[in-house]
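Thread: "does anyone have the structure for this chain?"

Original post by V.I.:
We have the sequence but no experimental structure in hand. Need at least a predicted one for the grant figures.
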Amino acid sequence: MVLGALTEYNNLGGRVLTNLTRTRRVVFRHADGNLYRLAKNGGSKNPGYMFRPKNENRYGGQVIRTEDPLEVIEATLKEGMSVRCKPIPNGTVRFLPFAPGSLQEYEVGSEIAEALGIPETGSVEEGKVG
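Reply from O.Q.:
Generated one for you, tokens below.
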């Protein structure tokens, strides 16, 4: 299903993420065209989602952990914090911000958009979300 959705995404100029959002609930598009999803840490020591405050040192800097994906999505889209994410369908997990030159577009499920009071789709070019 993911490969079919990626093919559809590429065939439509990279603007339709809906098929991926049905299974992932949040999808980001990077400036290089790659798609990303939230990466959940599966370890028992630090389970859950992670994000970094703005301008935090990427080596040894503060990392905020939470089990609530809404908190991560809000921190990323509204505050510009870097989120721990992974390319779709596979790849290296990285911390990336929602900013020009990095994660530039997003699509979230309707229930997430309603809970956070944001549009279901948006981009960096459209200005700050929320």
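V.I.: this helps a lot. Residues 1-17 have pLDDT under 50 and may be disordered.
O.Q.: and The longest strand covers residues 82-87.
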